TrEMBL record, chains A, B:
It is an enzyme of class 2 (transferase). It catalyses: a fatty acyl-[ACP] + phosphate = an acyl phosphate + holo-[ACP]. This is Phosphate acyltransferase. Gene3D superfamilies: Isopropylmalate Dehydrogenase (3.40.718.10). The gene is plsX. One of its GO terms (biological process) is fatty acid biosynthetic process. It is found in: Cytoplasm. Its EC number is 2.3.1.274. Pathway: Lipid metabolism; phospholipid metabolism. GO terms for cellular component: cytoplasm. It comes from the Bacteria. Belongs to the PlsX family. Keywords: Acyltransferase, Cytoplasm, Lipid biosynthesis, Lipid metabolism, Phospholipid biosynthesis, Phospholipid metabolism, Transferase. Catalyzes the reversible formation of acyl-phosphate (acyl-PO(4)) from acyl-[acyl-carrier-protein] (acyl-ACP). This enzyme utilizes acyl-ACP as fatty acyl donor, but not acyl-CoA.
Length: 375, 375
């Protein structure tokens, strides 16, 4: 199963978007998830939601916020905890809210699944229940990074689905990232960069040099612009929309950036609390400081998107509050409306064709032209 | 040659510390290097400096600042440019100021070499002229990262000397980082962390799990504390002093942090320029904002230190101004006074002994116990 007919629920018209939401996994419990749902549904009342979790616990939460009309409960009593290993969850996860939420996407009852549970377990279960799109060897998590671009963000992938990525994976990430930039951020012709330790072509690991060549060759037909190598200092740069890297480097980079922002935010607070004069200043600049805080607010960028599966999964932070949870739900609804999963599958399929063309051009005439993206 | 007698110039008493300085390689030209020297020598007048570069150009610069008494010129007319490839410089670099500056350390005329030239070329030439310390397979660059620790910094290595590092290299980095923390930052019992995508022991690449075991075993005898895996978010953490990783990840992390700090600094400036009220506030908070800027000032942390060579090299930023250049020179003088190069070599030699002990304990009695650190 790679592509869907336009009649499928994945490309449903605005009125009938259905999201599948895992009620459990938030650090603050299911009431936080329901609070986020209420916030989201107030802003986007056309969406219908399948909410997975223990019915007895969730019924009063929904009733209190009068969400019964828009939210349908799906009873699932098991819960995946933050400490469960992915391998355990794959063996014994049936009956959990996470498993149930993914199965609604598998069964095409919902277009996108949203969960704030354990990332490793969610990716393992998603691979098991949704299966990889044909042509994708390693699915990726796409994260958002505050930037000076008009959308306010750059996309980074892989943010940590897999600690490894070879040259073909990196090409696939470029294509999937392009698709996400178009459908998630509305960027018509995304600019893609490959993360490296220098911008010169002789720098970096061997697989990066090959990936540079592969991505460069795919760019014209896949309708993105390849800006070549980018360095860590350009994560927030305006000259790129999508930054491609392996999941180890991507995870370290994202967390380093978050840590740096936290450190500087703390330094700033201390600076403004230091003297009576600076405390007065912080009152005067209250609106400006609030605007600054909003601009850097990680809750606005909540939602790592799993790419390369037959169905879309949005991972919300475990520590997400109602605002952050609502942001993840808005992103999920946007991706559902754009028919994202189908478009991404089509893009990866076209990559296989591209690789095949390249293979044919390079191969001896009597050799079979194998698809690089399938290996 | 691994260790030096205490009589050598490397452990010279305070009065006779000699630094070897490459006058070329600064984006702003040799006048900036001389300005940094003047600033440094005013604060630390006991130091003597060998300054390498074109004599005709440097003589008037020194005369203008009356530095002839403390600075001896060594004529070298060639210059390594930012665009020269390391391989070219290794073949044709003789006669350049960089080569000449390294040779003063090689010949034991100076204890530490300082250069703001091309990093790749400097590392290649340093390996060629100074040679690796016995037991070190891959030298590393140690960078400083602003943190909440009393010293104001955490140490990160490798910051980009080599894009690869295996388990034995990572152990060596832990030992070299410990030695640098002790001699450069004055931390008696450094806490060492290994950078990974999660803190659980089952996470990450295979070589990281082995390195975890090796470093953990070496910690008691090498007198550092191993805190285990740390994540990118902990780069500035107070629970660690030395963060060990491969040069690819380290380079991306450092540059990502720098880029994030720049982005937020820019956002902050914009926030305070936005309204008349916030502009008044920024005037009121002038002292606090200046203090904040100083705390985040990358010039204070100028100086990547090359570790694992027979002699110490401090790499200053090419864009360093006089303040930053002076900071790199102060760091160099501190390392020279502590006899750092000898101490580091002794530490790595003890690691070879440690690995041998471990090898003997594990090996069959009739097998030769080979040193892991030598492979």
């Amino acid at each position: 199963m790679t592509t869907q007919s336009p009649e499928s629920s994945m490309t449903a018209p605005p009125g009938s978007v259905v999201l599948s939401v895992d009620a459990m996994g938030s650090d603050a419990g299911p009431s936080m998830v329901v609070a986020g749902l209420a916030k989201f549904l107030k802003a986007d009342p056309e969406v219908r939601v399948l909410l997975h979790g223990p019915k007895a616990e969730l019924t009063p939460l929904l009733a209190r916020r009068r969400l019964e009309g828009q939210v349908t409960l799906v009873d699932a009593s098991g819960v995946v905890s933050m400490h469960d290993k992915p391998s355990q969850v794959m063996r014994r996860g049936k009956g959990t809210s996470m498993w149930s939420a993914l199965d609604s996407v598998r069964e095409r009852e919902a277009a996108v699944c949203v969960s704030c549970g354990n990332t490793g377990a969610l990716m393992a279960l998603a691979m098991l229940r949704l299966r990889k799109v044909e042509g994708v060897n390693r699915p990726a998590i796409a994260g958002l990074w505050p930037s000076r671009n008009p959308s306010g963000y750059n996309i980074l992938l892989d943010a940590g689905a897999d600690i490894r990525a070879d040259q073909d994976d990196l090409l696939t990430y470029a294509l999937m990232g392009t698709s996400y930039a178009r459908n998630g951020l509305g960027i018509e012709r995304p600019r893609v960069g490959l993360l490296n330790v220098g911008v010169e072509e002789h720098k970096g690991r061997a697989e990066l040099k090959v990936a540079h060549e592969l991505i460069s060759r795919a760019a014209p037909r896949a309708e993105f612009e390849f800006v070549g190598f980018v360095e860590g200092s350009e994560m927030a740069s305006e000259r790129v929309d999508v930054i491609v890297t392996d999941g180890f480097t991507g995870n370290v980079a994202l967390k380093t950036g978050e840590g740096t922002a936290q450190l500087l935010g703390g330094f700033m607070r201390e600076a403004f609390m230091k003297t009576p004069l600076s405390r007065i200043a912080s009152l005067l600049a209250y609106t400006s400081i609030r605007r600054l805080r909003q601009r850097m607010d990680p809750r606005r960028a909540n939602g790592g998107v799993f790419l390369g599966l037959n169905g879309t999964v949005v991972k919300s932070h475990g520590s997400a509050d109602a605002t952050a949870m609502a942001a993840a739900l808005h992103l999920a609804a946007k991706l559902a409306r754009s028919g994202f999963a189908d478009r991404l599958a089509a893009r990866v399929a076209s990559a296989a064709a591209l690789a095949q063309d390249a293979g044919e051009a390079e191969a001896a005439p009597d050799e079979p032209a194998t698809s690089k993206a399938d290996t």
